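Notebook p. 47: complex prediction with iron/sulfur cluster.
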Amino acid sequence: MIANYGYKDGSGEYFISIDTDKCIACAADRACLTGCPLAMFETLVDDYDDEVVQIKAQFRRSLPYDCVGCKPAGGYTSLPCMSACTPGAIKHSW
Ligand code: SF4
Ligand code: SF4
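Predicted complex, structure tokens below:
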């Protein structure tokens, strides 16, 4: 399942999507949990009793502000969360 977290407004669409099928048997040892400097990812057990990850609720309405330090303007050429997630489950819409 692709789970989307974020929102859109007049300035654009700000979503992080997570392909939770890849999280069930994560080949990266849940590297997203420690790879994000703001620790925005957390584990949960979904409706199918599988352990997956999600974006913590307190970040979902402020993603463009919280993530700004990781974007090219912050000196990064690739996002730490996406680099950590070698299975490629994480995508950003902006
Ligand atoms: S590292 Fe990627 S595949 Fe693994 S739990 Fe995190 S988001 Fe899912
Ligand atoms: S861009 Fe940075 S702050 Fe945003 S989720 Fe990824 S690692 Fe965390």
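Notes: The domain at 2-92 is CATH 3.30.70 (Alpha-Beta Plaits). The longest strand covers residues 2-9.
Next step: compare against the earlier run before touching the bench.
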